[in-house]
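Might you be able to check the backbone structure tokens below? Thank you kindly.
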Amino acid sequence: MTNDCPNNSIMDVTYLSTHSLLPSRNLMQPDDTALLIIDVQERLIQAVDDQKQIVWNIRRLIDAANVLCIEIATTEQYPQRLGHTIELIATRTVNNPFPKLSFSCVGCVELLQQFRKSGIKKVLLCGIEAHVCVLQTALDLISNDYQVFLAVDAIGSRRRIDLEFALRRMESVGVTLTTTESVMFEWCHRADRVEFKTISNLVKECLSD
């Protein structure tokens, strides 16, 4: 019997090391990704649907970002009138929030300067409200050549219909929808990292009543 594929012997097979393969451009990497927390202020969050779950997930994202060295930035909408970022979030972030009057965070020149200085190309959004500041920020970031991700369980609006159509609109223009748990695993990448135990504990947390 003849061999129809004489060059495909076991001896000729070369297995590539996984270290020689490039990661997907659609995965967030610690050195090119920032977590942007939008306007989670006392006077705003009180009126938002599912506020407890949203704050819980944002807190978990911050804890994961801190342990994995992901850059974190926060914004505040008209803080003189609407107050400051809630304590649970403010005490976990190092840098001062960027105050703004524009609904889009891209109106904060200093914020974009910080992202460019740090080499940020991908931004994960969370915060409120989905159909106003989050939406406008997402669209503006895409227009400025950023790859935008959205933690859908860490954003909200006062009304569910506004949230629903904001998600549809953002996805239609190329925003990648994801979840808090998926993000934490994506940032971590591997189970043999020393930080994985912390990430695993964050994943296992349950939202208390």
User: Anything to note?
Assistant: The longest helix spans residues 51-68. DSSP finds nine helices and six strands in the chain. The chain has one domain: 28-204.
